[in-house]
Amino acid sequence: MKKVWLPLAFIALIGLLAAGLRLNPREVPSPLVGKPAPPFELPLLHAPDKRFTQKEMLGSVWVLNVWASWCPPCLAEHPVVTDLAKSVPVVGLNYKDAREDALPWLKRNGDPYRLSVYDAAGRIAIDYGVYGVPETYVIDRQGIIRYKHIGPLTPDVARDKLRPLVKELGGG
Amino acid sequence: MARLLVLLLFPVAALGQSPDLDKRVSALAEELRCLVCQNQTLADSHAPLAIDLRNQIREQLAGGASEREVREYMVARYGDFVLYRPPLKMTTVALWLGPFALVIAGLALLVRRLRRPRPPEPALSAAERERAAKLLE
After folding, report:
1. Backbone torsion region of residue A127, taken as left when φ is above 0, otherwise alpha when ψ lies between -120 and 50, otherwise beta
2. Cβ contact (<8 Å) for B79 and A29?
3. Could you tell me if residue A143 is left (phi over 0), alpha (psi between -120 and 50 degrees) or otherwise beta?
4. Which of B36, B56, B80 is the closest to A126 by Cβ?
5. The domain that contains A144 carries what CATH number?
6. Domain extents for chain B?
7. How many structural domains is chain A composed of?
8. CB A102 within 8 Å of CB A116
9. Predicted interface score ipTM higher than 0.85
10. By C-alpha distance, which of A157, A156, A136, A158 is closest to A147?
11. In which domain, by residue range, is A90 found?
12. Is B111 on the interface with A (CB under 8 A)?
């Protein structure tokens, strides 16, 4: 009886550790999913004298994409964001960047954003629980955060998660 | 003049001159996790976000917030994961009680094994006894 028991316990332990290794510690579940998008009012990246608040998006399903010109993964996900922006409005949150870097970056790589807000101090990003750019949020018509993706978007994530969710929420 | 400029530009730095506040900020930063470099506390980390969050802590404490309020502020944004001492709830029961459960299970196994009656020593046959005696000579 003991002879079966010990190897079984050992295999169970290996299984537990193997499952643990497969988890991505970077993907911290956000407490914000299911909660209203934190309010902000920020100047536009392109027009410092104009301001934008998340309230203006009430009534539509939209995507908030946190990006910066100094962030290589943002460049990597840029084609995916560009593609996504064809079917759902994407608002950029330009994070701890400088206008003189961010604007040429958009010129070089294309600007898929409906608009980008300029969060030079990163204060609003803290309210959104951002800890590594890029991060992407799907926000519903009522202004509730429905999904958060941490790290660069891949075509797979856009196809399997974002698009179906946007469609389900009645956007796009 | 220069001093005034510094005060205007870095109100946070100016507030930091109170050593008491410094102590509270670092005590709190010691028990919050830096999400960029996850095995470091906010106090240890030099990541830009950790610096921002330390400034947040300082600003809020200086503004009269309690330690609990600052902790709640962080949890609302980053989840229980930011706490190095997570609260005891359904999702963290295994974390808190797991080690004790393992120790108790181990002790139970040990006790069971120690209590098990030992099988009696096999008696030696006459031939074996003779051989042993010979070896001992």
Report:
1. alpha
2. yes
3. left
4. B56
5. 3.40.30.10
6. 7-85, 87-116
7. 1
8. yes
9. no
10. A136
11. 31-168
12. no
pLDDT digits (tens, 9 = 90+) for A40-74: 999 999 999 999 999 999 999 999 999 999 999 99
Q: Report the CATH number of the B7-85 domain.
A: 1.10.8.640
What stretches in chain B show pLDDT beneath 70?
1-17
**Does the global pTM surpass 0.80?**
no
Interface test with A, best of B10, B38, B45, B49 (most A CBs within 10 A): B49
Q: What is the pLDDT, as a whole number, of residue A21?
A: 85
- Of the candidates B35, B48, B49, which has its C-beta nearest A28's C-beta? B35
How far B1 CA sits from the closest chain A CA (Å)? 26
> How do residues A6-50 score in pLDDT, each as one tens digit?
889 899 999 989 988 888 777 777 889 999 999 999 999 999 999
Is residue A100, in this structure, part of any structural domain at all?
Answer: yes
CA A94 to chain centre: 12
B40 touches chain A (CB under 8 A): no
